[in-house]
């Protein structure tokens, strides 16, 4: 008996003797990550213990490049960080410069900007409404999403000449007036997209597998939303009722209060985030119709201000922010009175939103990680700038 008590057997030598944790790198070339993002996960079996988003793989120094370009040239840099929201990105820059100049923009330009910003919001959301089910194994919705995107891309391309990077905003207004008959074609496209949006209710929200993968998964609390500065559809899906278009109106949103509906959910899970995105598409289509109605009432007139050959902003600083499709975008502009910005700091929505994964992913399963990551609706260029 004494011999048996002194016998000791060790099974497994090496790393397993110290810990069962495993470090898993998701990316930077993983197909589920919307671009070149890397997630460093520490796993205990199938469960995530720690998560660290590693950003910077697409960093291109846009903020530094702003300092070497004049106020016309920086627009081409600004509309590229979130390539799904190019019109909204360039809009924020020109609003900041116009605020520095104390410049009033013609009324027709204000309403046209509002219209195109809402069409751009629909284009952004449709991409995620199609790609998110794809990441969970449902291939069909993406084909419907791209069909609706093409309807709207056609009118956006006709008015601006661009399909992704529109380059249609200018300091003081817009590049050109609307083409003859364009408003009717835009109204037809909006009606066509609206008539077919029920497809997503039937195909996606009505799918029990989709609901099983998303309901109660990746719950983001309002406290985390505030702690990390999460904004946009992600914040509103967690019950944080904040939308700049209503709470600090810019462009023509102050006159659209009756049409604008801020969509919120209380659950804060993957399903709630998808539902918010879907409902926002319906409301943006209604806002687009309201803008088309108002444009039809306005008399002919200019859509831009005449600018000097060399545009210089007065010395000082200003901050402009917009409700971009993915959340709050901020533009902090500092001028020394030259033709180029002294500093233009960009606050992008995706950068803040993605940081919340640090606290959201621990405790979840690896199988749910893709569902959570996809529901964060980010663009990696918007993270890295």
Strand-helix topology:
Blueprint lengths: L1 H5 L8 H4 L2 E6 L11 E7 L2 E8 L7 H5 L7 H5 L7 H16 L5 H29 L4 H21 L8 E2 L2 E2 L7 H15 L1 H8 L2 H7 L7 H7 L4 H5 L6 H4 L22 H28 L18 E9 L2 E9 L7 E5 L1 H7 L1 H4 L5 H9 L5 H5 L1
Antiparallel strand pairs: 1-2, 2-3, 4-5, 6-7, 7-8
Explain this structure to me?
With 385 residues, the protein is an alpha+beta fold. It has two domains: 22-54, no CATH class; 105-307 and 351-384, Cytochrome-c3 Hydrogenase, chain B, CATH 1.10.645.10. 48% of the residues lie in helices and 12% in strands. The protein contains 18 helices and eight strands. The protein has helices at residues 2-6, 15-18, 62-66, 74-78, 86-101, 107-135, 140-160, 182-196, 198-205, 208-214, 222-228, 233-237, 244-247, 270-297, 349-355, 357-360, 366-374, 380-384, and strands at 21-26, 38-44, 47-54, 169-170, 173-174, 316-324, 327-335, 343-347. The strands form three sheets. A three-stranded antiparallel sheet has the order 1-2-3. A three-stranded antiparallel sheet has the order 6-7-8. Strands 4-5 form a two-stranded antiparallel ribbon. The longest helix has 29 residues, at 107-135. The protein is globular, with a radius of gyration of 24 Å. The relative contact order is 0.18. The model is unreliable at 8-13 (pLDDT under 50). It catalyses: a quinone + NADH + 5 H(+)(in) = a quinol + NAD(+) + 4 H(+)(out). Belongs to the complex I 49 kDa subunit family.
